[in-house]
Structure formats: structure tokens, C-alpha cells
Write a structure and sequence with these properties.
- The longest helix is centred in the first third of the chain and has 23 residues.
- The protein has 84 residues and is mostly helical.
- It is built from 4 helices and no strands.
Length: 84
Amino acid sequence: MKRTVYTKTLPLLSFFFFVITSCADQYKGEEQKTNNKKTANETQKDQADLFAKKDIDTAQYNKILKALANNDSTGRWPAKAPYP
């Protein structure tokens, strides 16, 4: 009785394993095509741009936080913290 269960499930599991592993290899070639080599100066400039301090609109920031908190009136949310 157990032998028939294995003969039915083993091909099915093998098929799913094959499909899952073959789909994962599909995107590997695209990553290699789009991978451009940059110089050290370009990467440093890109990182500096990412971490550059930008001014924010505090009124808009407070409005968004209040909307995210669903206009909570208990005062517990949003938590009081310095502006990013």
C-alpha cells in the first residue's frame, strides 16, 4: 500500500522541484547584463548622494504620520521622535 503512495508523489515532487529551480535561473542572465562597472569615484559620489541630508517639510511629515496613525487621539501613536 505504501509503495503506491510513493509512486504517485515522487514524480509530482520531482516535477515541482524542477520547475522551481529552473525558474530561479531565469533572471541570472539579466543581472549580469545590467551590471555596469563604475569607478571608485562614481560609487563614492553615488553613496554621498544617497546619504546627503535633505530638508523635509515638517508639516507634511506630521500630516502623513497622523494619517498613518489613523488619527489616533490617545497620544500614544505616533511615537514622539526627532525628525529624520
